[in-house]
Amino acid sequence: MENDSSCEKETLLADPQGRSRSKPQSPPSHPERHRTLLLISAFLITNLLSFLIGCSLNWATVGSTAFSHSTLDIEKDGVYYDMDRKTLHETTFEPFSYVMSKYATPAGGEIDVDAEWEALGANHEVFLIPPGHEAAFDLRPEHVLYAPEMVSHPPGVISEPGYPATIQAIHQLHCLNLLRKSLWFNADYYRNEAKGSWGHNQTDADVQVHVGHCLDAMRQVVMCNADTDVVPLLWFTEQGRTISDFARNKQCRNFESVTAWSEKHQVKALESAVLEPPPDFTLAHIAGTEYNACFVI
Predict the structure, then answer these.
(1) Which of 78, 200, 242, 247 is an S-S bond match for 95, by CB 3.0 to 4.6 Å?
(2) Where in this protein does the record put region Disordered (predicted)?
(3) DSSP states of 13-27
(4) Where in the chain does DSSP place strands (E)?
């Protein structure tokens, strides 16, 4: 189409009187016109190549990031092979009630609230991440890597090396449980019974630091998730009082699968194991070590 148009222009301009004439069978050579067309073609091709290269670089950046994430997720599947991490199901949250749930009832009552939290998985121990999965789990050289020869007692606790770790959801349960125990109507019970954090020869100052850590950990979880779903209001009394409607539908992960996996793969014996660190281990810097607290987070 472009060549036809050029030829048509040539025919019209060739006759200053505007008279039409037949197009020559073999148009004469026009070096200047060919040079111009070559320059225009080169310009268009150069711009097209620049556009394609830019698109390919952008695709490569996005593609490599997606591939990287996919690869790391696949590597996690190598460890979490028997855990359902991807299924979502709809759950309706509990509404506000003056009847406290079995997870919030005061300690020492008819309901064994500690057993309920135990069943949730709040006290699960660490599991071991096999070497070779460092990138997937963001593990660095300074992180603890257990080896069988490091456990002097009891013997045979672990047979293969691994990085001890806790699933975040399990640690968050642990923190919520500690916050529950430290509530004003529960703290005296656990202190008097020497249970929970009060059962490890810890002072009130130690417990205070531990509780503070858990409170701040949960703050960070809330801020990180930044849930933008809404809590609307319901009419509560004829006088115009309202109450928040907390019974909202949410898309939730398979919590039961996560806790079942954690229970199955935890290494309970490590809780009381005597460990000998390697000669080249790195000490973590902990702010406020003047407390000299010995509790385990």
Answers:
(1) 247
(2) 1-32
(3) HH-TT----PPPSSP
(4) 88-92, 127-129, 151-153, 163-165, 233-235, 242-244, 249-253, 274-275
**Residue 273 counted as domain residue:** no
pTM of the predicted structure, to 2 decimals: 0.73
Residue 120 is encoded by which pair of tokens?
A: 């949730």
Residue 107 in this model has a pLDDT that exceeds 80: yes
CB distance 164 to 270 below 8 Å: yes
Task: Count other C-beta atoms under 10 Å from residue 27's C-beta.
Answer: 12
Tokens describing residue 28: 């004469």
Dist. CA 233–CA 235, nearest whole Å = 7
Query: Total domain count for the chain?
Result: 1
What are residue 113's phi and psi, to 5 degrees? -65, -30
pLDDT in tens, 121-133: 999 999 999 999 9
By the 10 Å C-beta count (0-12 exposed, 13-18 middle, 19+ buried), 121 is classed as buried
